[in-house]
Amino acid sequence: MFLATAWVNLGLMKRRFFLSIAASLLMVAPVLAPIAAAGPQHVETALRPLPRGGEVAPKPRGSVADLAAKYNKNGQSAAVLIDVASGKVLDVYNADRMMPPASVTKVVTTLYGIETLGETYRFTTRVLATGPTSGGIVQGDLVLMGGGDPALDSDELARMIKDLRDAGIKGITGQFLYYDAALPTLKEIDDGQPVEAAYNPAVSGLNLNFNRVHLEWDAGAALRLRARAEQHAPSVSTVRIEKMERSGPIYQYEVKGGADHWTVAAPAFKRAGATWLPVRNPAPYAAEVFRTLAEHYGLLLPYPVRADGVPDGRELARMERRDLKLVSRGMLHFSTNLTAEVLGLTASGQSALGSSGIAMQIWAKQKYAIGDAVFRDHSGLGDFNRISALDMAQIVAQAGKAGDLDGLLRRYFVQGPKGKKPAVEGAEVRAKTGTLNFVRGLSGLVHGRSGQKLAFAIFSADLEARAKIDGTNARQPAAKRFAGSARAFEQSVLRRWMLEFAR
Questions:
Q1: Strands, DSSP E only, in 171-300?
Q2: Measured CA angle at 425 (ends 422, 431), to 5 deg
Q3: At 269, is the secondary structure helix, strand, or coil?
Q4: pTM of the predicted structure, to 2 decimals
Q5: Residue 102 has what DSSP assignment?
Q6: Which of 51, 110, 326, 412 would staple 431 via disulfide (CB 3.0–4.6 Å)?
Q7: pLDDT of 66-101, one tens digit each?
Q8: What is the per-residue burial (b if ≥16 Cβ within 10 Å, else e) of 348-364?
């Protein structure tokens, strides 16, 4: 895929910080007040005892403070290092400061989902028949039953249709229904993102292609929208697009005639290219693609209709996702927001994203004996989420000790001071990153050369700069500079910790 990066910057976000964060600040105010008074120094007296007999280091080290002053002059930073075996806090800096975790939230979501649903839980999509089959014709309705699978794609729909064909199904006498009520339907994850942000799709009980549609264009040619997968890329009509002679904005969206309707600024599409756009009505999109593919394979179906209730029938075909632990591993490695929200909503059983985040928040507090963390989604995309570095490190330390994160986190390379060699030969870091404009987080485990495990959390943010972001701006060079400095801060802190503590 060739991205028109001059026009599409998926990192830009429209912010309503002072309005949207008010609710979260009310919840975390008791923690924020002493932190603000303390300024950017170490937090010593506010440290809580760790659960399970953990021990807090009496004197936090000054090196992290020096690095924070060097790399994050205008913002806030926090960092905590814990020995997993003993629970001892080895180093702290602003340990109790409440920080936005961004996609580091997905670590908590993974632990929550796996414990609640079980690591062998599988998302399943099925095709049902409401009546018997006679002469290859279903005497009744055919139902596409969504089970919330976040990774279902067009190729897998085609595979189920081939199973129907192999079973001798040639047609139906009733309706073609789709069921999407296994999860609540959300038009987007966070309403503060740019309208064209494909990382901010809808959520549904019937999802397809990560609820994205592929926009392609040739120089001067018509725009094409396809439900693209590796082998199949059918055209779609439930999402529509047209060029408009305007200077900007490049993308505008509305619902028109019950369909997603996009308009684009024609001058921005003079050169050939392609990009992904979010789908806001994923269930009709998935059903249309199923019908188009079915016709391609010789099975003619009527136009899809949403099922009013839970259909009952015999199963004709199914697509099972891999075990939840493997799905979670992919989510952590590729930071897929849709998967995180589907996982969290499935685990909580809540009908709204905010209440689902609160359910995870309550679970985390009870499970790991942490303080006043705030979760209002499961991906970390929104502005409401807050957690301290101490609480995040405690979660990782306890999960790391229990083996709950084994095989899940991605390798994070820590460079040595004089080149591309690792900071400590034989040691390894496995972690989850989190990035938003003017927000950066990293949390995970350091595996020492002799089997020692260290849990850590490192957060950086410049919330004043973040509050000033206009999501319609084409570029945010200041945010890019902040991200570079925050990564340099992470590298420097981890390098010092590994050289001193990783055995």
A1: 171-172, 176-179, 212-217, 224-226, 239-244, 251-256, 259-265, 273-278
A2: 60
A3: helix
A4: 0.86
A5: G
A6: 412
A7: 999 999 888 899 999 999 999 999 999 999 999 999
A8: bebeebeebbbbbbebb
